[in-house]
Amino acid sequence: MSNYDQLTAHYQTISHFNHAQSMLGWDAAANMPAGGNDARSKAMAELSVHVHRLSTQPQLGEWFDKAQQELLSTEQQSSLREMKRQWQQATIVPEDLVQAQSIAGSKCEHAWRSQRPANDWEGFEKNWKEVVKLSREEAKIRSEALGSTPYDAMLDKFEPGTTTASLDTLFSDVKTWLPELIEKALDKQNSQSIIMPSGTFSTANQKALGVETMKLLKFDFDHGRLDQSVHPFCGGVPSDVRITTRYDEKDFVQALMGIVHETGHARYEQGLPKAFAGLPVGEARSMGVHESQSLFFEMQIGRSKPFISHLSQLSANAFNAHQDPVFAEENLYKIYTQVEKGFIRVDADELTYPAHVIMRYEIERDLINGVIEHTDVPALWDEKMKASLGLSTKGNYQNGCMQDIHWTDGAFGYFPSYTLGAMYAAQYKATMQQTVDIDGAIKSGDLSPIFKWLSDNIWSQASLHTTDDLIKRATGETLNAAHFRKHLETRYL
Amino acid sequence: MSNYDQLTAHYQTISHFNHAQSMLGWDAAANMPAGGNDARSKAMAELSVHVHRLSTQPQLGEWFDKAQQELLSTEQQSSLREMKRQWQQATIVPEDLVQAQSIAGSKCEHAWRSQRPANDWEGFEKNWKEVVKLSREEAKIRSEALGSTPYDAMLDKFEPGTTTASLDTLFSDVKTWLPELIEKALDKQNSQSIIMPSGTFSTANQKALGVETMKLLKFDFDHGRLDQSVHPFCGGVPSDVRITTRYDEKDFVQALMGIVHETGHARYEQGLPKAFAGLPVGEARSMGVHESQSLFFEMQIGRSKPFISHLSQLSANAFNAHQDPVFAEENLYKIYTQVEKGFIRVDADELTYPAHVIMRYEIERDLINGVIEHTDVPALWDEKMKASLGLSTKGNYQNGCMQDIHWTDGAFGYFPSYTLGAMYAAQYKATMQQTVDIDGAIKSGDLSPIFKWLSDNIWSQASLHTTDDLIKRATGETLNAAHFRKHLETRYL
Ligand SMILES: [Zn+2]
Ligand SMILES: [Zn+2]
Question: What is the CA radius of gyration of chain A?
Fold first, then answer.
């Protein structure tokens, strides 16, 4: 067996344990009764340890060295590159640091669950200090290995190839036009009247509506399911993708669009190439590219007028309320494109969302690079919220810098993915519409030309190319914020 | 760390992978879309290989030898005995034989799924021949290691300590009185009129009824769930027991009693001692003892008059049919104690069931011991069915020797467990009623005195004692078929 084949077999073995891990995680969120938590956590921890052991097995280094001398096809070279990338990610940080981070992160996150509602910054700060310190150690080790700045090394975990330099350029561009665009959109919407949903929307009816919507989006129910969990997510494995949502019986709007979003994640997974199943090269390219699929579904398809026309029909059917003006196309469109300045990122609309991300990026970048200290964060948060959305968070930690889970366990470098995803999605649309009648396809109810473009250009490409190459091959250029701006201006002005 | 402690840690590690395996198996039956099967099978096979590797790790032999010299408490000695037993079970059969059996068994079972409906004995025989041959090889190897007959060695897998000698005694006793008892019961029932359920019983209502019944039986929903699958079973792990059932919208009777049965299995699992969680000594004693719990719930509680009075109430509520005579106590009792001679074991009633088991026992015993050949089975089946239930299966293989899945993949030695379980259950009842007002407890709707007895005597004892000791400690004697006879006579005469 060649060293390349040996590596391939090894990573497929790892994927089988990851399959178990992924399904146990989904089950814990979607099915497991509370009393099952203790044994489940132990089982999942054991699987993690085992996967880590397999991922850092001593002979891998030699196999990689030798495989690089073997005659490989272009695809095999990509496969080798991605296996090696995962191996480096697994081995780069010493195990005692990983363990210390896991303990500090769990402690901080656990306490945060009660500290946030209590607005207890002082309590939080005591735990978070350690998380930040350990993340900086991690960033230092990674940056030395990669020859990059500490924050770039953290970005590399989620968005390989993306750098502070490129993000600074992209985001500073956005900052030049976003605030004014938000103001104009708000002005325009001031004169609008919206009828908000009220009354009871049963979980059963909402679920049926979700399933109909997923069918319109060609979710493959032979390779996946829709279930419920407190925090919606897309889990499972490519051949069996488990998406979840949360229903609010007082309002169907959020859950419905949440399902559209998760369906975007799911179709990416379902569309990954079978030929590379179980191998790193067969996985989704990055967090940002993943989000580009969910946001293409949510923002480019889901909130478009022709799609909302379908949602109007489907939801009026589901709730048997054809005369109710809530479900009128125009009204639903207003609901789904309403702009509002708010404190909370996860509640933010499409237009204000980037502002939330960019300020987090600026703060975590400087925090990891040692330019600021963790105790500076609340004041910076207040300052940046005032500058971008005109809201003060002074003393309001729970709706300020304590609102997200990401930083509690050290996921620094993740936030940019959200806005990168929205930008990629707008750029795909700009290219796609040169060859595909997007609105026409949505109107007709047969969206396959859209999905064919996504499949050809993104899904089937998995991790065969770097992100930059992937985007260039798909759209003829690397990421260009102009498309995002144009999309937002078209929709909101 | 002592060798005993090392072994304990090792078996706990194994239990974490078994946790994953168990949950993936449940998910495959209860949730997984068909398209997920391929990746799931690979993941489960990988976990099996890994568990087998851990279970046969070379240093275990030395640890066991040394641990036996260490100062251990009585409970630790039991724990060591059960770890060693699992180790021996895992190592006794050479891996190439295990693999050959797995391949032959899968092939035979897969083909059987279409051969059975086609009544294709000739096709089946060709595959089954190999399964029997390999099972005989396994039995030979096991018997040499244990110093027993080949069939006793197979029994030992499912019912450690149970021998052909004891089963011959028990079953030949049953054969002296069962046929006449069946005839008398049939005579008595001839004059009865039963109103059978008809109409639609929605899955949702049946599930709600099942949940109410499980609550009456004190199933702990904080440590388990009820779901649906084609073949009902009890899966999961002790802290999170997953039971399943199958609903027929034309009839609620079977699913309801099926839930009672699985709840018995579930409460045994839920009641296993936390102190030994993850260790072999903390597991259920044997298949027969497991079945003694499900059958205690189904036969001793579930089909008793006071319990059926509850079911009458609960089902009339669930289907909102208080006037319907189907749900009248008397009528439900008749339904649940109806005796009928039939071809199919899984459809058999409490009274004819042992006849089905005993003839399978006699055939598989002689087959494994080399007294008969696999080609003799159809004729023997016909002969024994005629003798015990007066039914001929000549040429009717699909409702004869091809009806069960057990033999298709070589699970010889399993069948006796069903009737052992029924006998144990009757014996518990005989002892329990000396100190517990069983009918009174059921009538009152608070069954805890019954569950306390089961918990004290069976659940909390897990595998601390041998089966014989467990039964003796619980009832003052080893298994005695007289209690079973008495129970049946009381109910059916
Ligand atoms: Zn997303
Ligand atoms: Zn059972």
Answer: 23
| Residue type, position B270, single letter | Q
Terminal CA-CA length for chain B: 61
Domain boundaries, chain A: 3-158
Q: What is the pLDDT of residues B371-392, one digit of tens each?
A: 999 999 999 999 999 999 999 9
Positive or negative CA dihedral for B393, B395, B398, B403? positive
Instruction: Flag the least confident range among A74-83, B104-113, B238-247.
Output: B104-113
Ligand lying nearest the CA atom of residue B425:
2
Q: How far is Cα A358 from Cα A419, in angstroms, rounded to an integer?
A: 8
pLDDT of residue B119: 98
Which DSSP symbol is given to B327?
A: G
List the beta bridge partners of residue B243.
B226, B234
Taking alpha carbons only, the member of A48, A57, A42, A56 closest to residue A21 is: A48
Residue B118: CB atoms within 10 Å: 12
Neighbours of ion ligand 1 (CB under 5 A): A 294
Alpha helices of B93-218 — where are they, by DSSP H? 95-115, 121-146, 150-158, 164-190, 203-216
Q: SS3 of B395, please? A: coil
pTM for the whole structure: 0.95
A33–chain B nearest CA distance, Å? 5
Q: What is the CA radius of gyration of chain B?
A: 23
- pLDDT at position A199 is 82
Query: Which residue, among A26, A32, A283, would best test binding to B if mutated, counting the most B CBs under 10 Å from its CB?
Result: A32
Residue B455 has pLDDT above 90, yes or no: yes
Contact A405, A118 (CB under 8 A): no
- The residue-averaged pLDDT of A412-425 equals 98
State the greatest distance between any 2 C-alpha atoms of chain B, in Å, as a whole number.
70
Q: Which of B82, B138, B262, B362 is catalytic?
A: B262
Q: What is the ipTM of this complex?
A: 0.94
pLDDT tens, position by position, A257-296? 999 999 999 999 999 999 999 999 999 999 999 999 999 9
**Cβ neighbours of A91 (radius 10 Å):** 16
Select the residue from B11, B239, B272 to test the A interface by mutation, using most A Cβ atoms within 10 A.
B239
B262 assigned to active site: yes
d(CA A199, CA A389): 32
Interface A-B, measured as beta-carbon pairs within 8 A, has a size of 98
Can you list the positions of beta strands (E) in A192-233?
A: 224-228
Interface contact B31-A225, CB threshold 8 A: yes
A53–chain B nearest CA distance, Å: 13
- DSSP 8-state symbol, B281: G
A237 contacts on B by Cβ (under 8 Å): 36, 39
